[in-house]
Amino acid sequence: MQTKRTIFRNRWLPYALLAPQLAITIIFFLWPAAQAVRQSFLRQDAFGLKTSFVGLENYLALLKDPSYLQSFQVTAVFAVSVAALSMGLSLALAVAVDRVLRANQLYTTMLVWPYAVAPVAAGVLWWFMFNPSIGILSYALRQMGYDWNHNLDGTDAMILVVVAAAWKQISYNFLFFVAGLQSIPQSLREAAAIDGAGPAKRFFTVIFPLLSPTTFFLLVINVTYTMFDTFGVIDAATEGGPSQATNILVYKVYRDGFVGLNLGSSAAQSVVLMLIVMALTFVQFRWIERRVQY
Amino acid sequence: MVENRPYLNILAHVVLILGVAVVAFPVYLAFIASTHSPRDFVSGVMPLLPGDAMIETYRTMFTRGVSTAGAPPLSQMMFNSLVMALTIAVGKIAISILSAFAIVYFRFPFRATAFWMIFVTLMLPVEVRIVPTFEVVANLGLLNSYAGLSIPLIASATATFLFRQFFLTIPEELVEAARIDGAGPMRFFRDMLLPLSRTNMAALFVILFIFGWNQYLWPLLVTTDESYYTVVMGIKRLSDVADSEPQWNYVMATVILAMLPPILVVVGMQKLFVKGLVEQEK
């Protein structure tokens, strides 16, 4: 690991400097994580009086639990839809801003602020717009002959949370796509134009392939975001319903652990989630080394 | 611009204006809803122009809150949010810059271990260790306190990495010069590193303030006492009414006020915000 050639020598000072960070890390991160792993091998009776070691039983129960498998599926659909919708819209907006000569600063300002909106607020905003009795979008849909009700229809509920989560993520993706577009050398576009490629052809054969590092990076970030940072969206808009249609893994851990008080199962779910985060972090870091080049 | 194609320029503007409109529309509607009195919602059609009850709604929410929904006055919840967001932002920056300094400018046993321990926190968001973290905080007696709201969220691998990357780019000559002049490590830290890191700290502050302000799950777990509720929790409490329509004007006034501070920070410090965001992912 890198250090400076010239360093300071002191026996205890570096430990003192690291102490606050490490103390918080150990007390609030590593210890609880270890507890989650330990608890995932235990089972408590309903009153919390007796705890017994059950090995992998909690995990096996999860694998056999249709509602857990469904939650996996829901999470996958949710993550892919949010990433596709949000990244698609952001890319279109970024390409447009890249083309506009004047006023792009103004447009950028008008597009970045949703980053600051809390997920719960995003959830409530769209829940309000799609509200079956007063919402403006559900009203418009009714006029078009579609009876929207996310309290009863699972697909409607999924669309609601996807739209809310994607809306909040547009600004993030937009900023990274703009940065990616700006780093593509102008000479490449000019060369393609001289060779007779029109704007559409240039985009698909030159610009989009050169953007692929950014796209891939954003894909990982968006999947991570949808899996772990959308708790508020779900809680505000659908609470996982109707009948589990939007019960993503993170929400299920919370429900099973805090509301259902099924600690063993909740701990086992936590461990599975940790493995997923580790995999995503690994992918992200492996890739970042390549990203620096361009 | 490679070539001049007016129709494409127009198309670009159309796309952008549509994009801005779509992005802003939900917030516009929320604002409109917060300016109407409750009876305007009975008709079942959402009004699209501002009503006349704006001042009254905001005054009620700000000073009294809605006690039936278990929501204290917004002024109090916003104060709690502010304390939490500031503690998290300042705390994260402080402990991260210290540990990055230790990792870059010293060589000591277990340096790599310490680095990896910090790195691992990246993989353990609150969401995946909810129950055991709650138990730790409860055992420490930190439930319903500002310390419980903020300290567990202060550890941050990303901020430590950011400072580490930055310190590695600082020329060696600076340390050598400082040592020749007889400056000890803390003197060097205070007189050289801190001033040099100012922009990085400010950029990070913007991101972390938003992160702290928008926390939802964690405050939901550790506060049961109304006087520690944050405004982001208040949104949900107000909208969560059983068997009846929520009081839309109050809900939306809360949403607007909860969004306002972080949005002002982003818009007001856009340059720092973009810098912080882009660098945090490096």
From TrEMBL, chain A:
<feature type="transmembrane region" description="Helical">
    <location>
        <begin position="267"/>
        <end position="288"/>
    </location>
</feature>
<keyword id="KW-0997">Cell inner membrane</keyword>
<dbReference type="InterPro" id="IPR050809">
    <property type="entry name" value="UgpAE/MalFG_permease"/>
</dbReference>
<keyword id="KW-0813">Transport</keyword>
<feature type="transmembrane region" description="Helical">
    <location>
        <begin position="72"/>
        <end position="97"/>
    </location>
</feature>
<dbReference type="GO" id="GO:0005886">
    <property type="term" value="C:plasma membrane"/>
</dbReference>
<comment type="subunit">
    <text>The complex is composed of two ATP-binding proteins (UgpC), two transmembrane proteins (UgpA and UgpE) and a solute-binding protein (UgpB).</text>
</comment>
<comment type="function">
    <text>Part of the ABC transporter complex UgpBAEC involved in sn-glycerol-3-phosphate (G3P) import. Probably responsible for the translocation of the substrate across the membrane.</text>
</comment>
<feature type="transmembrane region" description="Helical">
    <location>
        <begin position="157"/>
        <end position="181"/>
    </location>
</feature>
<keyword id="KW-1133">Transmembrane helix</keyword>
<feature type="transmembrane region" description="Helical">
    <location>
        <begin position="12"/>
        <end position="34"/>
    </location>
</feature>
<dbReference type="InterPro" id="IPR035906">
    <property type="entry name" value="MetI-like_sf"/>
</dbReference>
<dbReference type="Pfam" id="PF00528">
    <property type="entry name" value="BPD_transp_1"/>
</dbReference>
<keyword id="KW-0812">Transmembrane</keyword>
<feature type="transmembrane region" description="Helical">
    <location>
        <begin position="202"/>
        <end position="221"/>
    </location>
</feature>
<dbReference type="GO" id="GO:0055085">
    <property type="term" value="P:transmembrane transport"/>
</dbReference>
<feature type="transmembrane region" description="Helical">
    <location>
        <begin position="109"/>
        <end position="129"/>
    </location>
</feature>
<comment type="similarity">
    <text>Belongs to the binding-protein-dependent transport system permease family.</text>
</comment>
<protein>
    <recommendedName>
        <fullName>sn-glycerol-3-phosphate transport system permease protein UgpA</fullName>
    </recommendedName>
</protein>
<keyword id="KW-0472">Membrane</keyword>
<feature type="domain" description="ABC transmembrane type-1">
    <location>
        <begin position="72"/>
        <end position="284"/>
    </location>
</feature>
<dbReference type="InterPro" id="IPR000515">
    <property type="entry name" value="MetI-like"/>
</dbReference>
TrEMBL record, chain B:
<comment type="function">
    <text>Part of the ABC transporter complex UgpBAEC involved in sn-glycerol-3-phosphate (G3P) import. Probably responsible for the translocation of the substrate across the membrane.</text>
</comment>
<feature type="transmembrane region" description="Helical">
    <location>
        <begin position="7"/>
        <end position="31"/>
    </location>
</feature>
<keyword id="KW-0997">Cell inner membrane</keyword>
<keyword id="KW-1133">Transmembrane helix</keyword>
<dbReference type="InterPro" id="IPR035906">
    <property type="entry name" value="MetI-like_sf"/>
</dbReference>
<keyword id="KW-0813">Transport</keyword>
<feature type="transmembrane region" description="Helical">
    <location>
        <begin position="143"/>
        <end position="163"/>
    </location>
</feature>
<dbReference type="GO" id="GO:0005886">
    <property type="term" value="C:plasma membrane"/>
</dbReference>
<feature type="transmembrane region" description="Helical">
    <location>
        <begin position="200"/>
        <end position="218"/>
    </location>
</feature>
<comment type="subunit">
    <text>The complex is composed of two ATP-binding proteins (UgpC), two transmembrane proteins (UgpA and UgpE) and a solute-binding protein (UgpB).</text>
</comment>
<keyword id="KW-0812">Transmembrane</keyword>
<feature type="domain" description="ABC transmembrane type-1">
    <location>
        <begin position="78"/>
        <end position="269"/>
    </location>
</feature>
<dbReference type="Pfam" id="PF00528">
    <property type="entry name" value="BPD_transp_1"/>
</dbReference>
<feature type="transmembrane region" description="Helical">
    <location>
        <begin position="82"/>
        <end position="106"/>
    </location>
</feature>
<protein>
    <recommendedName>
        <fullName>sn-glycerol-3-phosphate transport system permease protein UgpE</fullName>
    </recommendedName>
</protein>
<feature type="transmembrane region" description="Helical">
    <location>
        <begin position="113"/>
        <end position="131"/>
    </location>
</feature>
<keyword id="KW-0472">Membrane</keyword>
<dbReference type="GO" id="GO:0055085">
    <property type="term" value="P:transmembrane transport"/>
</dbReference>
<dbReference type="InterPro" id="IPR000515">
    <property type="entry name" value="MetI-like"/>
</dbReference>
<comment type="similarity">
    <text>Belongs to the binding-protein-dependent transport system permease family.</text>
</comment>
<keyword id="KW-1003">Cell membrane</keyword>
<feature type="transmembrane region" description="Helical">
    <location>
        <begin position="248"/>
        <end position="267"/>
    </location>
</feature>
